[in-house]
Design a protein that fits this description.
The complex is a heterodimer. Chain A contains no helices and 11 strands. Chain A is mostly beta strands. The radius of gyration of chain A is 13 Å and the shape is globular. Classes of the chains: A mainly beta, B mainly beta.
Amino acid sequence: SAVISQKPSRDICQRGTSLTIQCQVDSQVTMMFWYRQQPGQSLTLIATANQGSEATYESGFVIDKFPISRPNLTFSTLTVSNMSPEDSSIYLCSVFGGRSYNEQFFGPGTRLTVL
Amino acid sequence: AQKITQTQPGMFVQEKEAVTLDCTYDTSDQSYGLFWYKQPSSGEMIFLIYQGSYDEQNATEGRYSLNFQKARKSANLVISASQLGDSAMYFCAMTRGAQKLVFGQGTRLTINP
C-alpha cells in the first residue's frame, strides 16, 4: 500500500487568511486527488492533480479558492485561500496503489478550523 | 451519474456478532470499482476492501467481506466477529471516471461490549 503523509495535521486559522496543505507519497504516482470532508458530511472531491499540468477541478470548486501545485510525482500542495468558517473541514489527499492499482489510499488528513 | 446510497445512518451491534452494512449504487458504466472505508474519530480514512465490477468472486480481506450482488447493484460490507475497535464511521464508495471516487453518506457503527 502507498504511504501518504500530510502537513499540517491540524490548524486553527483566522478568516481571510490562507493555508497550504502538503501531501507526500512514498512512491511515484501519476494522479493525486484532494478531497474535502465538511463536519458530519461525506467526502467530496475537490480536484485531481497531475504532474506537469494544471489541476482539474470538480464542479463547485475553483482554482482561485483552492490553488494546487504538483511539482513532481510524489508531492502536491493544496492551498485554501481567503478562508471563511465554511472552509472548516478535513482535507485529505489520496492516490491509487495496491496489488492491482485498484485500491485508493488516503493520507491522514488535515483538520482545519477557521474562526 | 454515479450515486451511492447507505440507508443506515447508525447501527448498534453486540461485540463478537457479525454485522452487515448496506450499500447500493447506481451507475450506467460497465466497468467500475466499489470500495469500503473505515473512518475512526481521528478522521483518517482506512481502506478496507475493493471489488471490481468484473470480479466473479466476492472480495475478502481478513474479517471483512464484500457481498457483491451486481444485478441488485448492492455491495454490502460484512464484518465477522465484531470487535470494540470496529466502532467507527464506514463509507461505501465507487469509481467515477478515471479513479475519482464518489462516496455514500456513511454509517456510524457502534460495537457494544
